[in-house]
TrEMBL record:
Keywords in alphabetical order: Methyltransferase, Ribosome biogenesis, RNA-binding, rRNA processing, rRNA-binding, S-adenosyl-L-methionine, Transferase
Designated name of the protein: Ribosomal RNA small subunit methyltransferase NEP1
Compositionally biased tracts (Acidic residues): 22-31
InterPro entries reported in the protein's UniProt record: Alpha/beta_knot_MTases (IPR029028), Rbsml_bgen_MeTrfase_EMG1/NEP1 (IPR005304), tRNA_m1G_MTases_N (IPR029026)
Similarity field: Belongs to the class IV-like SAM-binding methyltransferase superfamily. RNA methyltransferase NEP1 family.
PANTHER family: NEP1/MRA1, RIBOSOMAL RNA SMALL SUBUNIT METHYLTRANSFERASE NEP1
Entries under Pfam families matching the protein: EMG1
Source species, domain of life: Eukaryota
Entry keyword annotation includes rRNA-binding: yes
Annotated segments matching region Disordered: 1-35
Length: 276
């Protein structure tokens, strides 16, 4: 049987009413989206204005010390920067057999005895452990390490950038040191930045003018607590730590202001200097 015509008309009216309601909902959604976009644009404009004011304030603060690069975080913390100088590092290159190598007491003892040299003086592992401790230290991770300089026993001076990652094995480290002493620089992979480079002596020309040079020595009678010693230094003075990277003997540097002694604690698989 056929359905009456009136029933079909009623159904069509209901569909038209539903369609009108959907259009109203779409228009409301579009209006809400436009309002949200306008609010986002206004927030971005406000953020740009505030950031511009902050940059102008920081620029005004940095112009107070012309010629000295200042990091904004340092302006807030007012903490001094740290520089390490490793003196008398045992990094000597020699031709052993058919290849050039960094001499060390473990692998080249016979070679050193034949050439009338004491194997105990050839300890490149000391500078290797020192660089690992410095570059992996909380001081470097906090961004307070300014630079690291290494001066070999033969008088060669080179710079190590604070963001360099030293190889985890000694053999790879010795290979990099050999390449550095032969080619005078090590560049980053895919970049032109020189991570390690040989520079001219003396090291004092690279140190800040207003800095305190502190040397470490077991023979020093001045045994200090490092926290108190550093806290006594002025906030606007950078600190230069001069450490001997040799197995024995005392570093003799005329630019050091003060020699101090601290406690050293040796643990298994690592060497840590406890600043107590």
């Amino acid at each position: 049987m056929l359905r009456p015509y009136g029933i079909k008309g009623q159904k069509r009216k209901k569909r038209e009413e539903r369609y009108d309601k959907e259009e109203d909902e779409v228009e409301a959604e579009e209006q809400s989206i436009e309002r949200a976009k306008r609010a986002m644009v206004e927030e971005k404009e406000m953020a740009m204005e505030t950031s511009g004011k902050e940059e102008e304030e920081l620029e005004g603060q940095t112009h107070e010390m012309a010629g000295i690069p200042i990091v904004p975080s340092d302006l807030k913390t007012k903490k001094p920067g740290l520089i390490f100088v490793l003196e008398r590092a045992s990094l000597e290159v020699a031709k052993v057999g058919k290849s050039y190598q960094i001499l060390n007491s473990d692998d080249h003892a016979n070679f050193l005895w034949k050439n009338n040299k004491n194997p105990a003086d050839y300890r490149p592992d000391i500078v290797y452990q020192a660089l690992l401790s410095i570059l992996d230290s909380p001081v470097n991770k906090a961004g307070r390490l300014r630079a690291v300089y290494v001066k070999t026993d033969k008088g060669v001076l080179f710079e190590v950038k604070p963001h360099v990652r030293i190889p985890r094995t000694y053999k790879r480290f010795a290979g990099i040191m050999l390449q550095l002493l032969q080619k005078l620089s090590i560049t980053a992979v895919g970049k032109r930045e020189k991570l390690l480079r040989v520079i001219k002596n003396p090291v004092t020309q690279y140190l800040p003018v207003n800095s305190r040079k502190i040397g470490f020595s077991y023979s020093s009678e001045k045994l200090v607590k490092m926290n108190k010693y550093v806290a006594a230094v002025s906030d606007d003075v950078d600190i230069v730590f001069v450490v001997g990277a040799t197995a024995h003997g005392k570093i003799d540097c005329d630019y050091i202001d003060d020699f101090i002694a601290i406690h050293v604690k040796i643990q298994v698989l690592s060497i840590k200097i406890w600043l107590c």
